[in-house]
Structure formats: structure tokens, C-alpha cells
Amino acid sequence: MLVAYPKDEFQRATTAMAIRAGRLAALLWAVLSAIAYAVLRFLMAGPVRRLEQLEALAAGGDAAPAATAGEATQTRAGLRLLGDELDQLETNLREAGLTYTAAVAALTPLTGTGGGGTRRAAEAVDGAGQSGSVLVEQAPGGSLARTIVRRLAPLAALLIIAGALILGAITVRDVNRSVEPELAARTSLIGTVVSENVQRAVRAGVPLDHLVGAEQFFGAMLARLPEVAYIAVATGRIVLEAGDRIDPYLAPPRARKEVRSHPIMHEGEEIAYVIIDIDPAFITDRFLEVFLDLGVVILVTVLIAFEVMILLTSRSLTAALDRLQRIAALQAAGDFSKRVPGTARRGVDRIVARLGERSESLNALFATAWARAATAPDAERRRLTLEAVAARFRLSLEGPALLRFPYFTDIRLALFLFAAADQLPLSFLPLYTRAAENPWAGLDESVVISLPLAGYLLAILLASPFVRPLTAQFGHRRLLLLAALPTLAAHIGLYLASGVPEIVLYRTLTGLGYAIATLACQDYVLDIVPRDQRDRSLGMFSTVLFGGIFCGTALGGVLADRIGQPAVFLVSGGLIVASAALIARFLSPLDAGAGRTAARYGLPTIWAPLRDRTFAALVLGIAIPAGVLLQAFVAYLVALTLDDLDASTADIGRTLMLYFLAIALVGPLAGRAAEAWAPVSAIASTGAFLSGASLLPAAFWPSQLTLAGAVLGAGIGHGMTRGAQVSMAMAIAETGLARLGPNAVLGVLRTLERAGSIVGLLPIALLAGVAGYPDATLAVAVWVLAGAALYTLATLNLGEGSRDAAAAPSGRDFARDRP
After folding, report:
1. What mean pLDDT is predicted for residues 283-303?
2. If pLDDT is split at 50, 70 and 90, which confidence band does 677 have?
3. Which end of the chain is more exposed for a tag (fewer CB within 10 A), N or C?
4. 681 CB-side CA count, 13 A
5. Angle at CA 23, nearest 5°, toward 22 and 29?
6. CA–CA distance, 741 with 636 (Å, rounded to integer)
7. Residue 183: which of 240, 272, 246, 107 has the closest Cα?
8. Distance (Å, rounded) from C-alpha 394 to C-alpha 99?
9. How many Å apart are CA 436 and CA 733, to the nearest integer?
10. 278 three-state secondary structure
């Protein structure tokens, strides 16, 4: 039988609906953007006016009036963040103006040029080009942008969520309206069928109260027609019914009008009628999957918006304000040996440029005075006087040095996008590998599926020791750009791959690129931030990295469901290109801290820390089991098990994202608990036991719900143990392994953890092929629980519970324990 159905009308209706949704989205974007702009202008009105006053102050020396109390209060009312900064800046600018005037007064008599000497010296410098060296200093502060964005982020999230909800609600309403005529027609048809069947029985002389099998007949109709919620025959009271009655006020309007339009007649009189209720949530239920995907997209959008806001806020305001504060403080202290690059685009940069001109003009004036002193009759006296002036105001013949300040925000968004790109395939990579052509027929399929992950981990393991020397040789910027090339090629190769060997090769290349990129970013943080801010900055680094991993994991499943698994690798490649573009645009070619070398560990150094029984217990009981759980269960077994349970790729992604979300939320809480009251060893043991125990329900009763619980529990447990591992390793490195030092101990910890996860992945994969995924999950659970018991017994016997209590998580865990 051939059935032809004309779809022209359907396609026209779909196109019209898409056009309406697009127009509505554009309108919402315009309206919400206008609201955001108006709110931001309101919040920043006070600081902007204050900056204008400070610009006038910088232009007029010490003649500009001080800000009134009302203006200062108004400034603090906007964001309540910049008031103290601007107060300090005003003080520095006033003192800098006085110092500049004193320097000019000291130099002018020595030049013999009168009052115009400064101007002519500056013109001479402009004509000859600026000289002087380039210095890279550690960034002053660096948290102001993040603090401001934290205040603005709720507003941005509210606008994004509001726009999505409005668009979704109106779209569902339009779909309901377009489907209503069809539902009304189907309702009428169903009512006709029901009334004719009941009418036939009545004509045969069967009373309504004695109809046999009517409920089963109605129930079968409900099963075939999911949009129908309730069918009944009534005479003023319900005689026969099936389903759940819908409140008339919730039913669609057409259904309410036609609810009694199918009478049942007997001897010319209406004796009964048919009631049919259409489920008002029918369309919404059909959109449930779309709504879940939309929720993931909204969450990812909010996180990306947060990172973009931090970057833009830093580049447009806070970084420039930091630079201005730095140069103003130097000049206020009588140091005109440095200048900061500035432009005329923004008020802050204009002030920076003006202060730079002061440094240039004073150094040029000093050079002019020094040259004229050589021909003066009292040359020796003039030179002694000039040397005193130069020492007082830090002047030189070479001119002021150019200061550059690197910031973590320079690489923050690039790191976030790189991590997201790397994790996009996590939810479907085992399925993608299983569907590829396998030339290794002799290997168990489960082992073959694990090979891309094993190659990826092996590349990270082998590449990690060489990143620090490469950073010293090439610099952060060049090394990051070089790492992007093989990573981009690998993602394109994965898109084109048709066989397992290609997937293994290209996934191994992505591991190489990931190791170089993330560790180079970590080294950048270590090199640019002041020592007293290092732990906090590394904590932010870990947060950004896991934020990107979370977004990539969540979004990858949605994209795989919507555009297909191979196309996701093209999206990953696009994110790599975007990350490289950000690095090229915002990272200075002059790298702070380049030239430092990393320690290299030979086999004796790797095995030496294991002679300490506490460290051995930490590695064997906590670190390696946590790595096996992450790689063998989270990155391997979850996707395959959920696929066997008929879960979609989007479902797999949403399940896996719970793991990284739990780590991001629990990790800081565990650190605070360790700082306040809880022994670190107890936190580590509790987290390990929780991780292992959470897998047991999924092993014995596998379902989507138990697997989600297992992933969430594993994430909570790993969030507790992750920082504790580093804290305890640092405590051991400062006591029992002080001869090796913390760098060597931490390097050995991570090396053995990654090596152990590779060694553990392959037998777990083989067990999954032989005994099934639940038994493999049980094996991982037993491994983690046994490790937790081993570590607990070891610490109790060695009495380490009290010694490591003082060692709080320090943020030195560089977030490399991930798939």
C-alpha cells in the first residue's frame, strides 16, 4: 500500500512559525540589550562622572577641584565598588601633579630654555620616536574585574533566562494554536466514533448501564491517542469513563465548546452525550526534551556570558584602571622612570597617556639639560645637580621604560573555550568508536572502545613533563598557538575518521594539545601573579577549567542529538580556533617569567616518595582509585550503560555534567571545612567512601536514575578528595619528604595517578566485555572502597590524622585529574 500525504501546507506553516520565532528572538534581543545597557549606564553613571573629573585633574595639574561629598556618594552608589579605587586614584593624581610641577621647576633652570622647555623637549621626543626598554611586571591586584562581574552576573543571567522563557512560552503558545484545529478535528472524529459505537448498542436494546467492555474500549482508544486525556458517556451523570478528567478551565477552548456535540439518541430523544477532554499539556510534554536541551543551552550561555563579561570588563575598565593606579602611584612617589601604553579612546586611557607624556617630557627635558651642561662653564656643578635631580625623580637619558601588565583574564576565556572544546565528545566518544570500522577483530570490543581514551591519557602523561621547558623556550603565547594547530587538525581528523585506528590516533593528538595548552596556561598564572595571590589565582584557574569542562560535557550531548556526532568535532574545532584567536589578540608576545625551567624526574625520583608509607597510602588508596573511577566509570562505562538503557546522547551529556557540577560546588566547601574544623585525612576518606558507595546501586540496579545518582555521588566524593590530595601531599613534602621538595612530590603524585588510571582502564574495559557493564561498575566501586579502607587504616596506624589537619587545600591542584 502506498500512502501519499501532501506536506506543502505543513511546510508553509512550519516556515511561518520559524520566521515568527526568529522575529520574536530579534525583538527580545533588542529589548533586553537596551535594558541591560540602560541598567549598566545607571550603575556606572557615578564612576564615569568621577573619571571625567579625574581626567580634568590630570590635565590641569593640582588646579582641579576635589570631588564633593555628594559626588563621592553618587560614585559609590554605582556598583559600590569603584569608590575606594577612585578615591585612592584621586589622591595619587594630585600628588603626582605636585611632584611633576616640582620636577619641572627643578629642571627648567638647568636647560636655559625658560618655561617652554618642557613643551619643546616633548616635541623633540615625539619627532624622534619613543625610546626606552620594555618591562613586564606582575599584575597589580587582578580581582576587581571578577568582583564587578559577580555583581552584574545575576542581572545578565536574569535577562538571558527571561528571554529564553519568553521565547519558549510564546513558541509553545503558537504551536498550540496551530495544532488546535487539528486536535479539534481529531476530537470531533473520536467523538463521532464513540457515539456511533454506543448508539449501535443502544439501538440493539442494550441499556447504557449494562454496556460490557466499554471501559476497555475507551482505554484502548486512550492508549492509541495520547492527546486524549479523558473519554466518558454521561446522562447528566457519568455512566462510562476512562482516563483522568481535565478541569474545564484548563482544556483548550475548542474542546470546551465541543464537549457535548456528540449526542446519543433513542426514539428521537437525546439520552446521553460524549465527553472528550484533550490533554492541555500534550504539546508541552512533547516539548519536554527540547525544554531540557534548552535548559542546558541557557546554563552554558550564562557561564560563557560570565567569562565574556570578565574579559570585556577587564580590557575596557579594570585593567586600564590598574595600570593608571600603578603609574599614578609611581609618579606620586617621584618615580618618572616608567610609562604605561595608553590610547585616546577611553577616559582612563587618556589619563594614562597624559601621565606617560609627563614621564617622556621630563626625561627629554633631563636629556636636554644634560647635553647643555657639557658646554656650560660650570659643567661639573650642573652635572652634580642633574644627577641629584635624576636620582630624586628617577630620570634617565634613555627615557622611561614601557610597562606591560599581564593578567589572568587575558587567557581566562581562551582556557574556558579550549576545555569546552576538548570535552564536547565526552558523552558519545565510546559510542562513536563502537560504530566505527574495527580492523582489530582479535581484540574484545570493549577494549577497542577504551583505546582512544587510553591514548588520550597516555599523551597527557608523556607530554606533561616537557611543557615547562617548552614554555621557557617558546614563551606562553607562542606555545599556546603551537598547541592549537595539532589539536585543530585532530578534531578535523575525528570528523573525517571512519575507522578505530584513526580515532585512536586523533584522540591521542587531542590529549597532547590539551596537556600543552592547559599546563601552559597554568604556568602563565604561576608566572604573572604575585606570590601572595598564587593560591587564589590557581583556584580561579581550576574553576575556569572545570567550568569549560562542564559546559563542553553538557553541550556536547545536546549537539550530538541535534546535528549528529561527527559534526560535533567541527564545533570543537571552531572553539579551538576561537581560543587561539583570543590568545593571539590578548596575550602579549612578551611573556612574564619565561626562562624558568622545570625539574625533570627520573625513575629513582618517581619511586622515591613511595618509600614514605603515608604518601604510598595516599597514592594507592585515594589518588589512583579516584583516577580509575573518573576514567573507567565516568568517561567510559556511563555512556555505554546509558546507551544500553536507550538513553539519548543528550541524556548522557546531562548525566555526566552532574559529575563536574558537583566537583565545582563541593570542592570549595570541602576546602573551607578543612580550614575551619575538619581533618583533611577525614575529608579524603569520607569522599572516597562516598564515591565508591554511590556506584553500588548503579551496579546492582542499573537505570538512568541510579546512574545519575552514581555520577552525582562520585562528583561529590571527588570534590572532597581532590583538594585534600594536594593538601596532604604538600604536608608530606614539608615533613617526611622535605628532601625532595613540593614540586617533585606533586609531580610524582599526578604522574602515578594518571599512570594508574590508564592501567586500571584497560582491565575494567575487558571485564565490561566479558561480564557486562554492571559488573564492571561493581569492580570500580570495590576498587575505590578498598582504596578508601586502605588509606583509612594506614592513616590511623601512622597517626597522620592529626598532623595533616593543619594542611588546608591550597589550590595547587591544577585540575589535571579529568578525562
Report:
1. 80
2. low
3. N
4. 26
5. 90
6. 35
7. 246
8. 12
9. 46
10. strand
Given a cut of 80, whether residue 123 has pLDDT beyond it is no
Q: Which among 787, 464, 780 is positioned nearest to 623, based on CA atoms?
A: 787
**More confident: 107 or 116:** 107
- Helical H segments across 531-648, by residue range: 534-563, 565-586, 603-607, 613-618, 624-628, 638-644
Q: How many residues does the chain have?
A: 819
In contact, 457 and 757? CB cutoff 8 Å: yes
- DSSP-derived letter for residue 204 is T
pLDDT in tens, 464-491: 878 878 887 888 888 999 999 999 999 9
64 pLDDT tier (thresholds 50, 70, 90): very low
Strands 401-404 and 134-136: parallel
- Is there a contact between 234 and 171 (Cβ–Cβ < 8 Å)? no
DSSP structural state of residue 499: B
Interatomic CA distance for residues 351 and 320, integer angstroms: 10
Cβ neighbours around 14 below 10 Å, total = 12
Please state, as a whole number, how many other Cβ atoms lie within 10 Å of the Cβ of residue 651: 21
Structure confidence at residue 670 (pLDDT): 67
Q: Report yes or no: 622 and 788 within 8 Å, Cβ to Cβ.
A: yes
Task: Please compute the mean of the pLDDT values over residues 519-528 and round it to a whole number.
Answer: 80
Q: What is the pLDDT of residues 692-715, one digit of tens each?
A: 999 999 999 999 999 999 999 998
Q: Are the C-beta atoms of residues 411 and 583 closer than 8 Å to each other?
A: yes
- What residues contact 206, with CB distance under 8 A and at least 6 apart? none
Please check whether residue 146 is in contact with residue 307, taking contact to mean a CB–CB distance below 8 angstroms. Answer: no
Q: Which of 27-41, 129-143, 359-373, 675-689 has the lowest mean pLDDT?
A: 129-143
pLDDT at 810: 39
User: CA 117, CA 107: separation in Å to the nearest integer?
Assistant: 9
Report which of 694, 741, 724 is spatially closest to residue 812, judged by C-alpha positions: 724
Report the 10 Å Cβ neighbour count for 61: 16
Look at phi and psi of residue 242 and say left if phi exceeds 0, alpha if psi is from -120 to 50, else beta: beta
Q: CA 563 to CA 558: how far, in whole Å?
A: 9
Beta strands of 626-689 (E only): which ranges? none
Q: Which residues 6+ apart lie within 8 Å of 721 measured at CB?
A: 622, 626, 683, 684, 687, 688, 691
Q: Which three cell numbers stand for residue 204?
A: 440493539
Residue, of 389 and 784, whose pLDDT is higher: 784
Cα–Cα distance, 647 to 640 (Å, whole number): 10
608/269 Cα distance (integer angstroms): 99
- Residue 98 neighbours by CB under 8 Å, 6+ apart: 61, 62
DSSP designation for 386: H
Q: Give dist(CA 232, CA 483) in Å, integer.
A: 68
Neighbour-count burial of 684, counting CB atoms closer than 10 A to its CB (0-12 exposed, 13-18 middle, 19+ buried): buried
In this structure, what C-alpha cell is assigned to residue 740? 625532595
pLDDT at 617: 86
Residue identified by cell 492508549 is 223
Please provide the average confidence, as pLDDT, over all residues in the chain: 78
State the CB neighbour count (10 A cutoff) for residue 72. Answer: 17
